[in-house]
Amino acid sequence: MGAIQGFEIRRSSAALRGGGTMLRQQPTVAKYIDTSICIGCKACEVACQEWNDLPLVKTEQVGTYQTMPSLAPNFWNLIQFREIDTGPHGFAWLLRKDQCMHCADPGCLAACPAPGAIVQYQNGIVDVDPEKCIGCGLCEPGCPFDVPRYTARDNKMAKCTLCVDRVTVGLEPACIKACPTGCLQFGDKSSLLALGAHRVKQLQDDGFASAAVYDPPGVGGTSVITVLKHGDHPEWYGLPKDPSVPTTVSLWKRVLHPIGFVAMAAAIFGAIGHFMAFGPKKPVDTAKDAGKEV
Amino acid sequence: MSELGIPGASQRRGPTVMDVARDREDVVVGDEIVRHKLSSRIIHWTVALFFVGALLTGMPIWSPVFGWMAYLFGGLSVCRWLHAWLGVAFSAATVVMFFFWLSDMRFDENDKKFSFIDYLKFSAAEDPNVGKYNAGQKLFFWSILFAMLLVLLTGIPLWWPKSFSWRLRQVCIVLHDVGFIYWFVAIVGHIYLGTAAEPGTFRSMTRGTVTRAWARLHHPKWFRDVTGGRG
Predict the structure, then answer these.
(1) Which CATH number covers residue A257?
(2) Which of A49, A190, B43, B162 could bridge across to A54 with cysteines, CB 3.0–4.6 Å?
């Protein structure tokens, strides 16, 4: 799917100038996931496949209540299951919906060298344009959540679009529509954060003292916010504790690029300056062809 | 004029410079000295062609500032594919070039005295012991070779992203860029010194020959060696 008409582009990969007009007011949207009431029914997985016209993939028995070992280029929404030893008082069965987190500061977009292949709309949705994707695979090192997957043909990146085609026309994403327990919600991020805070309070009252909303500040927050009963241990859910755009991506884009440009310019202007200061080094023959310059 | 009346016939003694330069070098022919035989020149320009190709297909991927270069090849998707193959071709050609010139590129005792800063001052005082290549040229040769190995090895995981872990590829991107930046700077210096800065040099890579005066100025020991000291 290409960039969506009617949506302002906030940021675009490998862009020198440009982007949207910033005229439209499009508040940041979010997907809200309450892991505490997910029953692992996989309705969201099926809805995702169906809406996005993805082929029904053959499931893989991994020995748990999980459909597939991990996300795939044609499988953008996975309910992950983990059995965790929570300490002396027992264990927990943790279900978490895994998909693109739609970071406010997307590492994939920062790492992408193809202009416009990864865009972030004004409403926070991070989308891929396969027509512009060159299949280099550089977005993967940029992602702290291990989301990008590559197609068999031309290595194009594929991931959850937050159903941007539905959102444009005022519908909620397909996974949200299919969820039977209300554990998935969609709307303005600010109101869903308020809902999350309310739910966290309930969980704390129920004895889950460390319950929290996962909205990691290291990537500027995400447009997929997750309520965790064990908020002090996001890694129990397969979420990184303090994700950020990897240092190598910053090193490469913010340090190596300026150094490279300066070095390239210095080489060219250095050569010109040297020529002016020291001139050409001409041989003048003194013996055979005396005085003749070459 | 010869007795036969053919213009220039009297000067025709044996093969011409171009005949000699086809398969021999370090020989004096008339006023010229053959510096690079034909095969050396061909391998040099083969390396140069693939290098420029890889540069022009790689730079638009490196930064959108150079995005216009991608259009020379049919777009960024073509560059992503072509860049890898040009890189392999460049590396292969560089290996061939390496064996062509290896024997001339070994450092000797005299090279230790070489100062790049002093060299760039273009002063008249030239070290009389500089042979066919000075220490700067030898250093350029070796550094280009090591940069080639670095950029080739880091390029392989970037070529096949699905076959290598992203942690490895993260490191490869940074090192690939370091190699590229070094190359760019080095090649600007190489082209400058081989053309505008030192007139009479470029023809050694086209016609294959240099003048006696050029050889005496830039490579005095080589000049003595090839002329047998008769200069």
Answers:
(1) 1.20.5
(2) A49
A209 near B CB under 8 A: no
The continuous run of DSSP H or E covering A17 comes out as: none
Residue A117 inside a domain? The answer is yes
Shared-domain flag, residues A235 and A263: no
Residue in this structure with the two tokens 């799917």, named with its chain if needed: A1
Domain count within chain A: 2
Partners of residue A226 on adjacent β-strands: A33, A214
Q: Are residues A129 and A262 in the same domain?
A: no
CA-CA distance, A201 to A209, in Å (whole number)?
9
Model confidence over A93-147: pLDDT tens digits? 999 999 999 999 999 999 999 999 999 999 999 999 999 999 999 999 999 999 9
275-294 in chain A: CB under 8 A from chain B: 275, 278-285, 287-289, 292-294
Any CB–CB contact under 8 A between A255 and chain B?
A: no
Establish if A2 belongs to a structural domain.
no
Q: Choose the mutation target among B188, B201, B218 for the interface with A, i.e. most A CBs under 10 Å.
A: B188
Q: Are residues A123 and A237 in the same domain?
A: yes
Which of A141, A150, A280 comes nearest B198 by C-beta?
A280
Q: E-strand spans in chain A?
A: 9-12, 29-34, 78-87, 90-98, 118-121, 126-128, 149-150, 157-158, 184-188, 212-214, 224-228
Q: Hey, which residues 85-114 in chain A have their CB within 8 Å of chain B?
A: 113-114
- Provide the residue range defining the domain that includes A195: 9-243
Q: Is A182 on the interface with B (CB under 8 A)?
A: no
Spatial separation of the C-alpha atoms in residues B16 and B20, rounded to whole Å: 6
Q: Which of A13, A245, A257, A281 to mutate to test the interface with B (most CBs of B within 10 A)?
A: A281
Provide the CATH number for the domain around residue A177. Answer: 3.30.70.20
Q: Are residues A137 and A235 in the same domain?
A: yes
User: Which one of B28, B77, B201, B209 would you mutate to disrupt binding with A, by most A Cβ within 10 Å of its Cβ?
Assistant: B77
Residues A215, A252 within the same domain: no
- The verdict on residue A41 lying in a domain is yes
Together in a domain, A28 and A50: yes
Task: Produce one character per residue of B67-94: b if its CB has 16 or more CB atoms within 10 Å, e if not.
Answer: bebbeebeebbebbbbbbebbbbbbebb
Using a CB-CB distance cutoff of 8 angstroms, which residues of chain A are in contact with residue B162?
A: 137, 150, 155
Rg (alpha carbons) of chain A, rounded to whole number: 26
Over chain B (231 residues), what is each successive 10-residue block's mean pLDDT? 46 76 90 95 98 98 96 96 98 96 94 88 81 95 97 96 92 95 97 95 96 93 88 55
Partner residue opposite B122 with nearest CB, options A246, A260, A279: A279
Structure token pair of residue A231: 């908020």
